[in-house]
Amino acid sequence: MRMYLSSFRMGEHPERLVELLDGPGPVAVIASAIDGASDDVRREDVERELEALAELGLDAEELDLRHYFDGRERLAAELLRYRLVWVRGGNTFMLRHALAASGADEILIRLVTQDALVYGGYSAGCCVLAPSLRVLELVDEPEAVTETYGVPPIWDGLGLIEYAFVPHVDSPEHPETEACGRLAEHYRETGVAHRTLRDGEAIVVRS
Length: 207
Prior knowledge:
CATH architecture: 3-Layer(aba) Sandwich
Largest sheet: 6 strands, mixed
CATH topology: Rossmann fold
Strand order of the largest sheet: 3-2-4-5-1-8
Distance between the termini: 5 Å
Order of helices and strands: EHEHEHEHHEHHEHEE
CATH class: Alpha Beta
Number of helices: 8
Number of strands: 8
Oligomer: single chain
Helix content: 25-40%
């Protein structure tokens, strides 16, 4: 299992991400965490991710999970094309909904645990990997899922990591640093296993 879990964007050592890949190949950018943004903002943010990956020598394209809400078999075949999925930040609950509605959650769990695919991402893209999304409402808005799709949010994470992921801690330039600090404090007080990262840091998993 190979994963690159960053607090914010590529982090200070993006070469560690490239080292996880076993050869050249296409990269899928999943931006479902910002599906609630306007089309213009979403397009600009996706382009930023594509450019950052291109600077690392990676051939990246967007994989919009909304196009697979009724096509799980198509998505399974599509994901087999990629060496890496890069899952950007935003609203963790919006991302979790898209992963479930498309079936990407089950597919990614299988491919990542079988070491057929590298999982990389930051912020919400890593928070969603925890066993549970409970208490993340201190940072993100679960009601955004209901407002956008008319269904309740999902509170179970993917369980690919055994702890809660807390980004942006002690990162004064990030607007969510105070909220993430409160989230980490709550986990400490309630005994929930968690890892805190400041912006620039990343966890590299190779097992």
